[in-house]
């Protein structure tokens, strides 16, 4: 098995996650102390220099995001713990194993944008995580380590799209979880129209170590354009179904074979889908691509949340993609036309193909629909929903053709 | 001011404009379904998409800020292709029956299908939802088989009337416009103001009172002032063949200074009394306790002689005129002038206080 | 209105609505108030015996007993004075009569007022503070304030309140009567009143009279005329011989219809000019068919003094004629030629005699219309009156007003208070709305609102027919059981001829000055049928 590099999971299984004292003993909350002693500008600059890019999927430089927040009386820090991707559990893992690293990270951000209030938006299916977090927050409050920064946990509405940052904000505000158009970005007008930074759990969890060890240290790890590590969750036909943290220059092949232990039951590899349900399907020929954001994008795939779904030679690609299409048909919020109607029609056509009742024209119109959706939908859900169809048509077209009518 | 290039032409617009506003200001038309300048923006129909150089995604021009130096294409091949797909997707859920539709000729969806040559949809395999058309209220026909999900009705109900009677229910392609428990409007906070009808770009929400009485292109719209309460809302009487067949809103600030098109149930739906069969159409004279029809000459002569006689016998102050809070200023002026100058008394009043 | 409708949507940061069910009777103004409250966070105070739509939205809702408005407003002023919230500078610079008013108000402590109005003292305090502390506070009222034997006092009271806090003469402030009918404002402006010519020029003023005599080429009566209610009373006494009624329906709209009926029957000659054979027209000797607003040109003046065009859309139906033509024909036949080619010509004549309209013309009214005063052709019109606290008569005068009980109070025989009003779906005496197919289909029947406790006590089911009586008479009406009013109050509209509220109301209790009948309070009894 290959060697992990643990930054966000540095304390995992080493300390008692229920004990703030353990965390402090392990060096916790020192980074926050250091941050509080820094000028806001300098702090943001340091994070920007580290080139810590968002671990929630969009890969935006966190320090840059914070720097867009205008001076305002009220600002908010929001942590995205919606983790709605099937097969993804990395954020839950981080929080369960070391909640204080998240709280510390959020408080650092709070100082950077002069915010007194943070929210953690926790996936509805994780009620025990809410409890766990509340316990940690309580400890931190009592210890007074967060200073004048307070954190509240909000339970999610259960819809996948609520993980999208603006839908998440709508949901916290008590509205229907539907994305807003951008701009304005949350950094300018977010929660209750106030400037708001939304970051992923893993993004926040990187901050303490970046401050402790400096941006230069961080920048040197992994891929140059997307430095640091990435927590990946391995699922599907892989031997080790585990969560791992690896430098971002690790290749997909290393992930599957060195960390994942290869394909189960001695079968042959067929495809891997990375980044969650909307991630692209990657064939054998591209396995030597590093997992970092830009390299993945280069092959038409995504790093996304870091879910790694491995499929062996027996898997029916068309059938899997049909089920993915059903997922999006179900999860579209219905706000914008191309996604509401498009996900519905994609599923319809995929079903037709899967049942052997479609002709090549059906594939063509679906391709057209996908192409339009990718550029025309209002939010990331609709834009990304066609990804699996598009990439499988590219790399596994023969599987479709087998099912088409003559 | 910002300067940008649209379809190869340099244009200018005030800072803070959206791309759509900048385009329209410069005479460049971009199709829109969900956009309404008086409502909170939605940016959801994706009809107004444009291509901006250097941006990987299409931008919804109704919500995207116009920026200096932007290079925008509003009708490029890719954009037209996207719009067509969006229209086809909507067409696949649409119950086309333009020939009997109230909105034929005044329908944005029809217009855009025509403009982009969408004759039929390629996406009809799975059929469409069929919604019953069965709200029993006497004012508004709700036919969601023609709805394009622009949510203008929802926003008008909330932003203008502040009634919040309707909202989007369900998610994904099951989403539809409904009252809180998907029931009749009468059982919701609806006040039947018809603001939703005013903003609906298609034939999904129409007036039951006007149904079958005339299409938009057949009527002449006469801008006037409402006859009911003292708010003084501007409205348009729709006239066909010398008959009032409907009321529509004039939404310009310039012509509708008080209400900007907003009306209440009386103004919007309470106009067919004009052609009620109860209207008096000829003078009546009472004889032996019964009315009989009379000519204007006979009736006016009778009134003039009787009033003249009473004035001479009993004096002007034995007569009075009730003028009206309903009639025009000009008529009120004449009524009091008549009382004072012709009858010779100041006994003139009206029901201001009643 | 001293101010403009649009200000209620954006400029007012506090709005006090008293005696106005705005969302039903002035719906579009109601929408603007709601928007200001919901979107801009304006504070809202509502005083109304019925819990109206706006009351549900209010920061403070005061359900005072019908007829106790003066006490309520005095109570608010008491708080404002005692808590030092009055605008001393405005009082000193722009008003007079403060001392006398303050002296009267001194005894109206919130606790004392609670006893009269049933409104909890702390709500009165809260309302007073909200109103006084708002940056710009407007008062909106309608018939709920005026249709009382103390209607004039009620109006003066709210003017006191506005002056006390300097809420006059700035955007978003003011005292805003919401006029009930499309052209009440215009009918008053045009001199459709027994004591004034157009623009409120007194008929008893010699110089004014001479001006009109010269313009009209006749000599004119120097005596004040009779109000509508006095006219009916005179007719009842047999002293009125002829009456011409143009587009009014006293046999529905006036108090105590028995009284009106007898009065009309005693006339020698009754002419009714209307678009329908109204309840009144049935008593006429001659009925002349007039035209609706769709059938003629002209202007209406709305509640914010905005004069707007009415445009002819169709020809008069059948043999009907525009009312202006009918009046001209009559005058001409009576030996006083009136000849105009169009309403515009009438307007031109009128404006020469009406200083507040002098600067208007049809050309200028195109589009947005103009708000009077508009004294000359360059004047842009006047969105709000009393700018910077300047009143037309110099200083704003406070009035010292004591609370007086309504004329007819509940007793053993008639233990309830009947109050009347309008509903969203109908208008006034229903001549138009009852003949509008959709409106009548939606609300075809009169209803009496009854509190559930009262209904339970009397064993009345929702929807059941009940008998409602007053000293004037009784009628049968469908019960609508609702908790929006107090147990001793019942409410009905006056839209339905089948159950006309005014068979029950009191013609004797008039406001002594304005001669407004006390529609909002009379003693009543409810019986099961
Ligand atoms: C449909 C959809 C679902 C998303 N779900 C999540 C999620 O579960 N967790 C998450 O952190 N980000 C999710 N995102 C990304 C967020 O919108 C946002 O980019 C992220 O929270 C920003 O944090 P980061 O910059 O730290 O990555 C989702 C985006 C879309 C379009
Ligand atoms: S893309 Fe889909 S999920 Fe996103 S706004 Fe549009 S309908 Fe909603
Ligand atoms: S809504 Fe428009 S497109 Fe649809 S049937 Fe009516 S007119 Fe035709
Ligand atoms: S009629 Fe008015 S209140 Fe009713 S749904 Fe439409 S906009 Fe809302
Ligand atoms: S009913 Fe009309 S206004 Fe409402 S969403 Fe449908 S198309 Fe739009
Ligand atoms: S008009 Fe721009 S998205 Fe609908």
Describe this structure in words.
The complex is a heterotrimer of chains A (406), B (354) and C (529). With 406 residues, chain A is α/β, with parallel strands linked by helices. Chain A has helices at residues 20-25, 30-36, 40-50, 62-67, 90-97, 99-112, 127-143, 165-172, 201-213, 215-219, 252-259, 293-298, 317-331, 337-354, 360-376, 380-384, 387-395, 397-403, and strands at residues 76-81, 117-122, 150-155, 196-200, 222-223, 226-227, 229-236, 243-247, 269-274, 281-283, 307-312. Chain A folds into three domains: 20-220, 3-Layer(aba) Sandwich (Rossmann fold); 223-312, Ubiquitin-like (UB roll) (Roll); 317-401, de novo design (two linked rop proteins) (Up-down Bundle). Chain A is built from 18 helices and eleven strands. In chain A, helix 5 packs across helix 6. Chain B has four domains: 2-75, Ubiquitin-like (UB roll); 98-207, 2-Layer Sandwich (Alpha-Beta Plaits); 221-275, ADC-like domains (N-terminal domain of TfIIb), CATH 2.20.25.90; 284-353, no CATH class. Helix content of chain B is 24%, strand content 19%. In chain B, the strands form six sheets. Chain B has a five-stranded mixed sheet with strand order 2-1-5-3-4, with helices on both faces. Chains in contact: A-B, B-C. Strand 13 of chain B pairs antiparallel with strand 11 (286-289) of chain C, so a sheet runs across the interface. One iron/sulfur cluster (SF4) binds next to helix 4 of chain B. The site of FE2/S2 (inorganic) cluster (FES) has 12 residues of chain B, from loops.
């Amino acid at each position: 098995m290959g060697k992990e590099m643990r930054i966000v999971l540095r304390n995992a299984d080493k300390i008692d996650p229920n004990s703030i004292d353990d965390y402090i003993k392990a060096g916790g909350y020192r980074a926050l102390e250091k941050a509080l002693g820094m000028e806001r500008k300098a702090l943001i600059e340091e994070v920007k220099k580290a080139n810590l890019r968002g671990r929630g999927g969009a890969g935006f430089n966190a320090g840059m995001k914070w720097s867009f927040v205008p001076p305002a009386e009220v600002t908010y820090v929001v942590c995205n713990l919606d983790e709605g991707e099937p097969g993804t559990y990395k954020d839950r893992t981080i929080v369960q194993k070391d909640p204080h690293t998240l709280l510390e990270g959020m408080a650092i951000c709070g100082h950077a944008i002069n915010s007194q209030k943070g929210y953690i938006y926790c996936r509805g299916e994780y009620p025990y995580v809410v409890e766990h977090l509340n316990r940690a927050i309580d400890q931190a409050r009592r210890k007074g380590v967060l200073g004048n920064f307070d954190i509240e946990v909000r339970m999610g509405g259960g819809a996948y799209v609520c993980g999208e940052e603006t839908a998440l904000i709508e949901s916290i505000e008590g509205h229907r979880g539907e994305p807003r158009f951008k701009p304005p970005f949350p950094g300018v007008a977010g929660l209750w129209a106030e400037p708001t930074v939304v970051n992923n759990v893993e993004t926040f969890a990187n901050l303490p170590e970046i401050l402790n060890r400096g941006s230069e240290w961080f920048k040197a790890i992994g891929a140059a354009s997307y430095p640091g590590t990435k927590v990946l969750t391995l699922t599907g036909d892989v031997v080790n179904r585990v969560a791992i943290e690896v430098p971002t220059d690790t290749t997909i092949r290393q992930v599957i074979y060195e960390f994942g232990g290869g394909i189960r039951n001695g079968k042959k590899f067929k495809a891997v889908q990375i980044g969650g349900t909307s991630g692209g399907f990657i064939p054998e020929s591209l396995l030597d691509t590093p997992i970092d954001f830009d390299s993945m994008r280069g092959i038409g795939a995504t790093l996304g949340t870091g879910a790694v779904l491995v499929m062996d030679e027996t898997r029916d690609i068309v059938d899997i993609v049909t089920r993915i299409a059903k997922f999006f048909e179900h999860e579209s919020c219905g706000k914008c036309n191309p996604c509401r109607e498009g996900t519905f029609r994609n599923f319809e056509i995929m079903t037709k193909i899967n049942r052997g009742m479609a002709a090549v024209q059906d594939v063509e119109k679906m391709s057209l629909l996908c192409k339009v959706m990718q550029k025309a939908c209002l939010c990331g859900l609709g834009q990304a929903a066609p990804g699996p169809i598009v990439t499988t048509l590219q790399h596994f077209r023969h599987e479709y053709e087998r099912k088409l009518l003559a | 001011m910002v300067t940008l290039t649209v379809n190869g032409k340099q244009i200018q617009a005030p800072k803070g404009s959206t791309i759509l506003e900048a385009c329209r200001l410069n005479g460049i038309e971009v199709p829109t379904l969900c956009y309404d300048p008086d409502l909170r923006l939605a940016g959801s129909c994706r009809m107004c998409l444009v291509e901006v150089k250097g941006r990987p995604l299409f931008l919804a021009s109704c919500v995207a800020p116009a920026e200096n130096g932007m290079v925008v294409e509003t009708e490029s091949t890719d954009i037209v292709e996207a719009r067509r797909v969006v229209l086809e997707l909507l067409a696949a859920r649409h119950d086309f029956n333009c020939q009997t539709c109230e909105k034929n000729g005044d329908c944005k969806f029809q217009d855009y299908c025509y403009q982009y040559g969408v004759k039929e949809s390629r996406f009809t395999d799975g059929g469409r939802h069929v919604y019953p058309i069965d709200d029993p209220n006497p004012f508004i026909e709700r036919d969601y088989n023609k709805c394009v999900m622009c949510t203008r009705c929802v926003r008008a109900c909330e932003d203008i009337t502040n009634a919040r009677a309707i909202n989007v229910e369900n998610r994904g392609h099951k989403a539809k416009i409904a009252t809180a428990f998907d029931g009749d409007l009468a059982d919701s906070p609806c006040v039947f103001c018809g603001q939703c009808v005013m903003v609906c770009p298609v034939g999904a929400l129409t007036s039951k009172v006007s149904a079958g009485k005339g299409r938009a292109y057949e009527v002449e719209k006469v801008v006037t002032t409402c006859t009911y309460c003292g708010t003084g809302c501007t409205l348009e009487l729709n006239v066909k063949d010398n008959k009032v067949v409907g009321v529509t809103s004039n939404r310009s600030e310039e012509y509708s200074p008080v209400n900007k098109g907003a009306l209440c149930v009386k103004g919007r739906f309470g106009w067919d009394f004009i052609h009620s069969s109860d209207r008096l159409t000829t003078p009546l004279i009472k004889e032996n306790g019964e009315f009989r029809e009379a000519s204007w000459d006979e009736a006016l002569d009778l009134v003039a002689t009787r009033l003249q006689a009473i004035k001479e016998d009993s004096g002007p102050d034995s007569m009075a005129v009730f003028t009206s809070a309903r009639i025009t200023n000009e008529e009120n002026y004449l009524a009091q002038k008549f009382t004072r100058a012709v009858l010779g008394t100041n006994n003139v009043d009206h029901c201001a206080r009643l | 209105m001293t101010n403009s409708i649009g200000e209620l949507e954006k400029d007012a940061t506090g709005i006090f609505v008293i005696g106005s069910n705005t969302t039903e009777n002035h719906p579009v103004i109601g929408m603007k108030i709601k928007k200001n409250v919901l979107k801009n966070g304006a504070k809202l105070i509502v005083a109304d015996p019925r819990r109206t739509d706006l009351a549900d939205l209010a920061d403070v809702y005061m359900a005072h007993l019908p007829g106790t408005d003066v006490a309520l407003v005095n109570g608010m002023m008491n708080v404002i004075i005692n808590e030092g919230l009055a605008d001393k500078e405005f009082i000193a610079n722009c008003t007079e009569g403060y001392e006398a008013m303050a002296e009267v108000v001194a005894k109206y402590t919130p606790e004392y007022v609670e006893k009269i109005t049933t409104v909890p003292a702390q709500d009165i305090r809260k309302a007073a503070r909200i109103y006084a502390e708002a940056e710009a506070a407007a008062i909106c009222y309608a018939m709920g304030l005026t249709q009382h034997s103390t209607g004039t006092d009620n109006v003066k009271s709210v003017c006191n309140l506005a002056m006390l806090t300097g809420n006059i003469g700035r955007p978003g402030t003011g005292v805003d009567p919401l006029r009930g009918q499309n052209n009440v404002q215009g009918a008053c402006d045009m001199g459709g009143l027994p004591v004034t010519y157009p623009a409120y020029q007194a008929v008893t003023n010699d110089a004014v009279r001479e001006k009109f005599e010269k313009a009209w080429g006749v000599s004119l009566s120097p005596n004040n005329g009779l109000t509508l209610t006095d006219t009916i009373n005179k007719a009842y006494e047999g002293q009125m011989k002829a009456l011409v009624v143009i587009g009014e329906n006293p046999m529905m709209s006036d108090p105590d219809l028995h009284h009106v009926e007898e009065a009309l029957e005693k006339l020698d000659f009754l002419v009714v000019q209307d678009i329908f054979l109204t309840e009144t027209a049935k008593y006429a000797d001659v009925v002349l068919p007039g035209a609706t607003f769709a059938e003629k040109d002209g202007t209406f003046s709305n509640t914010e003094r905005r004069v707007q065009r009415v445009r002819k859309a169709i020809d008069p139906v059948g043999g009907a004629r525009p009312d202006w033509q009918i009046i001209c024909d009559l005058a001409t036949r009576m030996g006083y030629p009136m000849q105009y080619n169009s309403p515009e010509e009438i307007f031109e004549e009128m404006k020469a005699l009406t200083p507040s309209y002098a600067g208007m013309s049809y050309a200028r009214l195109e589009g947005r219309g103009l708000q009077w005063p508009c004294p000359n052709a360059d004047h842009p019109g006047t969105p709000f009156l009393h700018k910077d606290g300047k009143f037309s008569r110099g200083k704003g005068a406070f009035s010292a007003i004591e609370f007086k009980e309504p004329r007819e109070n509940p007793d053993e025989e008639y233990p309830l208070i009947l109050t009347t009003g309008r509903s969203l779906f109908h208008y006034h005496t229903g001549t138009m709305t009852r003949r509008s197919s959709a409106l009548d289909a939606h609300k075809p029947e009169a209803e009496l609102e009854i509190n559930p406790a009262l209904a339970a006590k009397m064993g009345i089911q929702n929807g059941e027919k009940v008998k409602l009586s007053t000293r004037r008479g009784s009628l049968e009406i469908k019960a609508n059981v609702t908790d929006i009013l107090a147990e001793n109050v019942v409410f009905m509209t006056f839209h339905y001829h089948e159950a006309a509220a005014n068979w029950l109301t009191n013609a004797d209790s008039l406001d002594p000055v304005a001669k407004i009948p006390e529609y909002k309070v009379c003693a009543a009894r409810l019986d099961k049928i």
